[in-house]
């Protein structure tokens, strides 16, 4: 009888707003993936929305399982999950599948996606250990824990996924008060380095100089050819409109043509006529499809749903009574916000183009399942995090 009352009391702490917001976004993803793929000639590609819907159903099951398991027990085993992820990342360049010039897939999944969750769990566990210090030693241990998988992801190559770890790890370190002087000093150095890279790219495009010197400056940026082109397009939007800048320009036109209320579902002319390439309309640039068909009103609703997820995640963090749960929520919320902000910003030309998907809406089963498990664990923090902390061996 006592256990039944305890279970009922815990269930009352279940956060329905988080679940509803997540499901609404995922359903919108199914609808707009169908819309963006409906004009494709390849029958297999026309079925992407079905795969997304199947991932949604599986994700809901995983969400429920994660929500009703005490997150503290899972964090205690985070080192094992982290180790498995490292093994998978090491195997990717060896036996992984190559698609579009990059090796990112292994056994049908992208290990780089669960790696993000694994890093967050590992850091939350490290920061919450009883008697653990958060000085210089923890700072460099954090760099090691996040840096090893980040380097393996860069080798795939996948700069966007590796870069999204930066704000995620930074916010976790900031919230945990890890070596503040080193943290802010490292942040300043990173900002200066990023500024120098942008400056070098700008100079090579605007200043007349010998070819040898220009090539030397380009090599100094340590960027691959496609990464360099993306930065050039970001700094000079009118550069190479029929090449590297084509997708961005068509995306901006699609977003702007949606107006206040959009053209209507399945009425998006830009992707229907093929101006927005079908290879990107269902994943990286799906926000442009949504904006053209649903207009400002639809995009505002999407932003409000993401704001709801962010707000509920932070609310759960504030109400949690132990550092592990709080810091885990901070990490997941930052990761989701970073993906959302970067994806939308690149779609409208405010940031360089990257391969980061829009959470729950872009096609990408591994990423969606990862994020649904992550939110399920935040739901677990909501239900179990108000109890006094118990350390599990």
What structural category arises from helix and sheet content? Answer: mainly alpha
Task: Estimate percent helicity.
Answer: over 70%
Overall mean confidence score, pLDDT = 84
How many separate helices? 18
The proportion of residues in beta strands is under 5%
- List low-pLDDT spans: none
Radius of gyration: 22 Å
How would you characterize the overall build of this protein?
The chain is mainly α. The protein has one domain (16-384). 71% of the residues lie in helices and 2% in strands. The chain is built from 18 helices and 2 strands. It has a two-stranded antiparallel ribbon. A hairpin with a 2-residue loop joins strand 1 and strand 2. The radius of gyration is 22 Å and the shape is globular. The chain starts with a helix and ends in a 9-residue tail after the last helix. The relative contact order is 0.16.
